[in-house]
Amino acid sequence: MERYGSDTEGDEQETPLLHRGHDDKVQRAPVCCSSRYGLALLSSYGFFVVYSLRVNLSVAMVEMLNSTHQANTNHSSVCPAHTGPVQPKPNHMANVYDWDSETQGWILGSFFYGYILTQIPGGYLAGRFGPKWLLGLGILGTVIFTLLTPVAANLGASYLIAVRVLEGIGEGVTFPAMYTMWAAWAPPLERSRLLTISYIGAQLGTVIALPLSGVICFYLEWTYVFYVFGGVGLVWFVLWVFLVFDSPNTHPRISERERLYITNSLKNELSTSAGYIPWRSIVTSGPLWAIVVAHFSYNWTFYTLLTLLPTYMNDILGFSIQQNGLLSALPYLGCAVVAVLCGQLADYLRETCLYRTVIVRKAFSIIGMIGPAVFLVAAGYIGCDYTLAVIFLTISSSLGGASASGFNINHLDIAPSYAGILLGITNTFATIPGMVGPVIARALTKENTIEEWQTVFYIAAAINLFGATVYTIFGRGMVQPWAVRTSYSHGD
Questions:
Q1: Share of the chain above pLDDT 70, in %
Q2: Which of 298, 269, 481 is closest to 406 using CA atoms?
Q3: Of 65, 206, 303, 362, which is least surrounded by CB within 10 A?
Q4: pTM, rounded to two decimals
C-alpha cells in the first residue's frame, strides 16, 4: 500500500515511494514525437500569445498619445541620453488621444482587475469540465477583445478600460487550466522539463512582443499591433482545438506505450473521488501557503520590472524608445533560457541523482529569488554605467527563471489532483503585486532620482528574501494526505 505520511516524515520517504517505485513499474515512452511534448510545445505557443497580448499595449500606448501632450510632460533623464540617428517616421493616420498620466495608469492596470477574478474559478471549472476548452476559450476571448482594442480606444478611455478588464478575465483561467491539464499529462519525473517548456512561451511572448510592437508601431500604425498579435492568437486556437485533448485516455492518436507510461506513473497520485474538493484541507495546508508567500514575493519583483523597466531605462539611463524595446526584452530572454536549463537539471537531479523533490524545489527557489534580489539591489548602485546596469538587470531577471523548477510547479508535487485550484489560489495572491507594486514604485519615484529607484529595488529585494525564507522553512515536496482520498491496497 502506498503511504502518504506527515509533512515532516513523508519527505524522507518520498523518493522510494512516489518516484523510484513508479518508474520501475512502467516502461518509459520516447520523447521524440510524443503527445506529451507536443502538448508542451503547443501550450508554450499559447502562453506566448497570452503574454504578447498582455504587454503589447505598454508599447502601443506611446504611439496612442497625442505627441503635443507628450512633449509637454517629457523630462530629461538622469544619465546622459543615448540617442541614435533619427529615422524619418512614416505618415501615420491612426487616431491619437489626450489621456493624462492617471488615465494611462488605469488603462495599463485594468487588465489585472479582471485577471484576479478568474484564478480560483478557473481552477475549479477546469477540474469540473476539463481544461482544454476552458483554456482555449479563455485565450480566444482575450484575442477577440484584443482585435477590438482600436475600436474601444476610439469610443473612449472607459471603453478601453472595460476591454482590458475583459481580457484579464479571459487570461485569468489560463494558468489554472494548464496546471489541471498537466496533472493528467506530466509524469512525476518529467514535470520540471514539461512545465518549463510550456511556460517558456510566457517569457518569449514578452521578449518578442516588446521590440516587435515598437517596430510595428514605427513602420505601420499602433492599431496593427493588436491586429498582428490577435491574428497569431487565432492561429493558435485552431491548432489547440484539433491537436489537444484533456487526458492521455481521451487522445485518439497517442501511442499505447506513452498512454500507459503516463497513466501508470500517475495512478497513485490522483484522487479517485470525482467532484470532491477538500476545501478545508486546501486552505489550511501549510505547504500551500508557503507557495502563496513565495509566489507573491517573486511576482512583486517580476511585475515591478515588467511594467517599469522601460520607464527606468528611459528616465534614468536615457535610452531611446527604439533601444528601450530591445534592452527591456533582454532580461526576459535570459529568464527563458535559464528556466529551460533549470528544468532539465531539476529532473536530472531527481531522476538520476535521486535527490528528494523537496530539496530540489527549495534549492531552485532560493536561486530564483535570492539571486535576483542581490543583482537588483546592485543595479541601483552602478550610477550611469549603462553596460553594468543592463547586465545586472538581465542577470537579475534571468536567475528568476530558476524558480520555474522551484515553488512555481510545487502545486503538482503536493496535490496533482487539485493543482489547478491550488494554482488559482496562489496566482490570486500573486496578482496583487501587479496591481499595487508598480503604483507604490511610481509613488516612491516622483522625482526620478537614482536614490528613489534604489528604494524601489530594496523593497523588491526584501520581499523576495522574505518569500524565499518562508518557502525554505515550510515548503514540502510530496503528495499531501488530503490530496489522495483512496488508499491503494490491492497490489498497486
A1: 85
A2: 298
A3: 65
A4: 0.78
